[in-house]
């Protein structure tokens, strides 16, 4: 199938996508999160973009790609920009910048800048913000250098058992943060001495390591945090390379495995003012889930494992050039989108969910996840089912695979029976967690009026595919919204606004943590959620 190139300005991001996809889907693949208040019905007008060079304004959720395009995305159409520059959902004063005022005397005629920092287990994201307007000036991101000590928080906790090793992990992250600060400054010719306020979010383990707090107790039942409280510290005390008269604000955690990043997500998605039942999911190795209304909010951590990040999948990888990121049915065959538009060499999380959904819809696998006989399948689909000696078969014996891409006539990217099982385990962990929170609140699927998918994976995943594989509650697709890196968006709000800082602290105290593994119905909920 022929693909088209869509270039987004002023970001300068270019993606390749199949014909018929919406500009909203294309923006998601480019990592750009647009406002979709109406659930992509085309009624709210919040996702308006401008086609270049004609200057035609279209709605990204309605306009379909039929050729190569260059698209200008206005600030007001972006999720994070909208939250900061205009009224937040359900409150008028949510993001009125005012924290800058305490630096007016120190700054004089110089700009007053701030940093929104999201320290993830895998990735660190730094955003340079104009404190007076809330405007995003520059972004820099990189791999968390602590990954050499393990991909997950349990590995980091296990390493940081002594003060010396805790300091080692702290030194690594602070050093990388300072590198990213300089990179942001270089992008816009700013001075680090103009940076006064820094807001830091992250899971509880990353939060503790950044502040050099003990982490041993996080790895031992009952998994208690050393501190859940928000904290303000002088930059010099933490080694952060900004103006020494400034302040570093670390956001409040919720529990041992639900951290400040989830607090920021809750703020960015306006859970404090949610009148209707709302579900927020940040899908990752540890998926965080929040469910409820402004009157009662429950949170849980779901150990989904690394399948959605490509680990334990025969041809899996993280989202990188050459990875299949989308799979769709094309009449009686399949079509794929590849990051970078080149030759496919692997499959990442969003492509994995798509592929399994396509395999279900086309009859390749049944509701238990087993491969079905291929005799009744369309010939083009049936030809993709074959037996080869693949990467995760026992003793390299031949096993059944579904081929997504070939190099010549050789299967290059495929899914195995074990890959399907890994997807089932990952999605069952998240879906069971959601189900148990629903049970606590006596909510049926139909009672959930909006679902927000947060995080990088949540931004790229196709909603229809997530519903098809049973990852999400069975709700109309227009109730599901991708909100991108909502943790970073929330950090921006908390950075510039004292009102948002208070709201975040209140949310962290209000959200009730549920240890789902201790719930009596956990085993049955998990088993039921394994099915498609």
Structure description:
By secondary structure, the chain is an alpha/beta fold. 30% of the residues lie in helices and 25% in strands. The chain has 16 helices and 23 strands. Strands 8-7-6-9-11-10 form a 6-stranded mixed beta sheet, sandwiched between helices. It has a 6-stranded mixed beta sheet with strand order 22-21-12-13-14-23, sandwiched between helices. A hairpin with a 3-residue loop joins strand 12 and strand 13. Helix 8 packs across helix 15 and helix 11 crosses helix 16. The longest helix has 26 residues. The radius of gyration is 23 Å and the shape is globular.
Broad structural category: alpha/beta
Percent of residues in β-strands = 25-35%
Give the helix proportion (percent range): 25-40%
DSSP helical segment count: 16
Q: What is the number of strand segments? A: 23
Q: Strand order within the widest sheet? A: 8-7-6-9-11-10
The parts where pLDDT drops under 50 for at least 5 residues are 82-93
Largest sheet: 6 strands, mixed
- Broad shape: globular
Can you describe this structure in just a few lines?
This protein has 532 residues and is of the alpha/beta class.
